[in-house]
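USER: Please consider what follows.
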Amino acid sequence: MDDSQAIASRFHRVLARRWISRQQLIVVEYLKSENRMLRERVKGRSLRFSDQERALLARKAFGIPRNVLLELGTIVTPDTLLRWHRQLIARKFDFSHRRKPGRPRTMWVMAELIVRMAMENPRWGYTRIQGGSLQSGTRGRAWHHRQRSQT
């Protein structure tokens, strides 16, 4: 490719970029006008959004600066959009569905070992059973042994 072809190619790319940005400006202006009309129609009434709609609006608005959102005249305030985004992120990293209430259960193998040791050695207390289970390679707390030896 010689210099004149390279310059012509670059010129065409610049024209295409300008045309695309001009088209985007026209679309943005149309959407601003449409938003303005919709806001005037629902004036005074609050809109209810589903969780999916809130999440979608929050995701789309996240990369846009607050002053641009104010200029756009969105359906909800920029502060609301940012709050929805914070809630969306908090929900994403919550992991509460994985948690179960209460203390984790004792492993059944360990529980069986403790019960067996208590049955085989009726005079042992929970401290001695704990020491015996530590020597056998399992780990546990005295409370578990106390609970098992009392049954």
About this structure: The chain has a mean pLDDT of 77.
